[in-house]
Amino acid sequence: MKRKICVVITARASYSRVKTLLIAIKSHPSLCLQLVITGSCLLEKYGGLTKLVNQDGFDPIIKVSNLLENENPTAAAKTTGLGVIELASVFENVRPDVVVTVADRYETMSAAVAASFMNIPLAHVQGGEVTGNIDEKVRHAVSKLADVHFVATASARNRLIAMGEVPENVWHTGCPSIDLAIQIKNDAAMRFDYESCQSFSSASKYIVVMHHPVTTEHGFTKDQFCSLVNAISALHIPTFWFTPNPDYGAAQILKEIQRYGETSKNLKIHFLRNLNPESFLKLIKHCACLIGNSSTGIREASLLGTPVVNIGSRQQGRERSFNVIDVDFDSNAIIEAVQNQLDHGHYDSSILYGNGDAGNQIADLLAKMKLSVNKQITY
Amino acid sequence: MKRKICVVITARASYSRVKTLLIAIKSHPSLCLQLVITGSCLLEKYGGLTKLVNQDGFDPIIKVSNLLENENPTAAAKTTGLGVIELASVFENVRPDVVVTVADRYETMSAAVAASFMNIPLAHVQGGEVTGNIDEKVRHAVSKLADVHFVATASARNRLIAMGEVPENVWHTGCPSIDLAIQIKNDAAMRFDYESCQSFSSASKYIVVMHHPVTTEHGFTKDQFCSLVNAISALHIPTFWFTPNPDYGAAQILKEIQRYGETSKNLKIHFLRNLNPESFLKLIKHCACLIGNSSTGIREASLLGTPVVNIGSRQQGRERSFNVIDVDFDSNAIIEAVQNQLDHGHYDSSILYGNGDAGNQIADLLAKMKLSVNKQITY
Amino acid sequence: MKRKICVVITARASYSRVKTLLIAIKSHPSLCLQLVITGSCLLEKYGGLTKLVNQDGFDPIIKVSNLLENENPTAAAKTTGLGVIELASVFENVRPDVVVTVADRYETMSAAVAASFMNIPLAHVQGGEVTGNIDEKVRHAVSKLADVHFVATASARNRLIAMGEVPENVWHTGCPSIDLAIQIKNDAAMRFDYESCQSFSSASKYIVVMHHPVTTEHGFTKDQFCSLVNAISALHIPTFWFTPNPDYGAAQILKEIQRYGETSKNLKIHFLRNLNPESFLKLIKHCACLIGNSSTGIREASLLGTPVVNIGSRQQGRERSFNVIDVDFDSNAIIEAVQNQLDHGHYDSSILYGNGDAGNQIADLLAKMKLSVNKQITY
Amino acid sequence: MKRKICVVITARASYSRVKTLLIAIKSHPSLCLQLVITGSCLLEKYGGLTKLVNQDGFDPIIKVSNLLENENPTAAAKTTGLGVIELASVFENVRPDVVVTVADRYETMSAAVAASFMNIPLAHVQGGEVTGNIDEKVRHAVSKLADVHFVATASARNRLIAMGEVPENVWHTGCPSIDLAIQIKNDAAMRFDYESCQSFSSASKYIVVMHHPVTTEHGFTKDQFCSLVNAISALHIPTFWFTPNPDYGAAQILKEIQRYGETSKNLKIHFLRNLNPESFLKLIKHCACLIGNSSTGIREASLLGTPVVNIGSRQQGRERSFNVIDVDFDSNAIIEAVQNQLDHGHYDSSILYGNGDAGNQIADLLAKMKLSVNKQITY
Question: SUPFAM superfamilies given for it (chains A, B, C, D) (predicted)?
Answer without folding.
Answer: UDP-Glycosyltransferase/glycogen phosphorylase
